[in-house]
Amino acid sequence: MLKIWGRPNSIHTQRVLWTCAEAEVPYELILASATMGPDGHISGGGKPYGIVDTPSYRAMNPNGTVPTIDDDGYVLWESNVISRYLAQKYAPEALFGGSLERLGHANQWMEWTGTRLEPALHVLVMELVRLAPEKRDPANVERVRRETLPRLEILDRHLAGQPYVAGDTFTLGDIPPGAAAYRWTLFDLDGPPLPHLKAWQARLAERPGFQKHVAPREYHLA
Q1: Taking every pair of C-alpha atoms in the chain, what is the biggest distance, in angstroms?
Q2: Which of 125, 140, 145, 138 is nearest to 191 (CA)?
Q3: Nearest Cα to 45, choosing from 33, 37, 56?
Q4: Is residue 159 in some structural domain?
Q5: Any idea what DSSP says for residue 161?
Q6: pTM above the 0.90 mark?
Q7: How high is the pLDDT of residue 45?
Q8: Residue that is last in its domain, among 90, 113, 133
Q9: Which of 86, 102, 187, 192 has its C-alpha lying 20 to 30 A from 58's C-alpha?
Q10: Is the dihedral angle over the CA atoms 79, 77, 85, 6 positive or is it negative?
C-alpha cells in the first residue's frame, strides 16, 4: 500500500490526499511534521508530530519536509511532483484525459500556484492562525493581501471562459489552486467579488476528495 508522510492541515499534503481520492489509490497516512502537532503550531507551544528529523526520514527526503511517499519502494517528495506521478500512474484518463496537452495546461496552473499564490498563503496562515498573537504583524498581512488580489483576479479571468483550469473537465490542475483559493476564502479578507472563481469553487466543493481532505475548516484555521 502507498505510504504518505504528512499532516491533514498541510495544504501540500492535502493536494496528495485529494489526488489519491480522485485516482482511487488506497494509502496509509503517517503523521509527520517539524512544526505542527495535535495541539497546533510549535510557536504556540505545541509539540510537533516529528519523524521528519530522523535519519530514516532524511534518507528518503533530505529536506525534512512533508509530504513524502513510498509507493512499493519508490520514494518521492514535493507535492506537485507526487500528484503528477500518481495521476500518470494510476488515473491518466480521470485526471488529465490521457492527453499530454491537457496535462501541460494542468501543470502550468499547478506551478503557478506554487510560485504565485502559495508563498502568500503561507504568510497569511502564519500571521492569522498559527503564530502566537504577540508575534503577528498586521502590516505584513495587509501587504500580502494587496499582493495576492491581482493573482486571484488572473485566475478569475481565466475561469470566465471555461469551468476548470485546464478546460471543460476537472483535471489534476484544479487541485493545487483549488485548495489554495479555498484557504484564501476562509481568511475572510477584503477583496473583489471574483464570481468565476467562486463558481469554480462551488464545482470543486461537490467532489468527495475535496470534501474529505480540503473542506474541513480546522485544516486551515488551526
Answers
A1: 50
A2: 145
A3: 37
A4: yes
A5: S
A6: yes
A7: 84
A8: 90
A9: 86
A10: negative
What does the block give as the cell for 13?
Answer: 499534503
Number of domains in the chain: 2
> What are the helix and strand counts (H, E) for the chain?
10, 6
Note the pLDDT of residue 62.
Answer: 98
3 in Cβ contact with 22 (< 8 Å): no
Residue 177 · residue 121 · CB < 8 Å: no
Check if the beta carbon of residue 22 is closer than 8 Å to that of residue 210: no
Give which of 185, 187, 33, 34 is closest to 124, Cα–Cα: 187
- Tell me 131's DSSP state: S
**Which phi and psi angles does 68 have, rounded to 5°?**
-130, 145
Counted residue by residue, the chain has a size of: 222
Extract the C-alpha cell encoding 183: 484557504
Distance of alpha carbon 179 from alpha carbon 11, whole angstroms: 7
Residues 124 and 186 in one domain: yes
The per-residue pLDDT for 43 is 83
Please name the helix (run of DSSP H) or strand (run of DSSP E) that holds residue 77, with its range, or none: strand 74-77
Residue with cell 492562525: 129
Residue 202, domain extent:
98-212
Tens of pLDDT, residue by residue over 36-68, are 999 888 988 889 999 999 999 999 999 999 999
Judged by phi (left if over 0) then psi (alpha if -120 to 50, else beta), residue 164 lies in beta
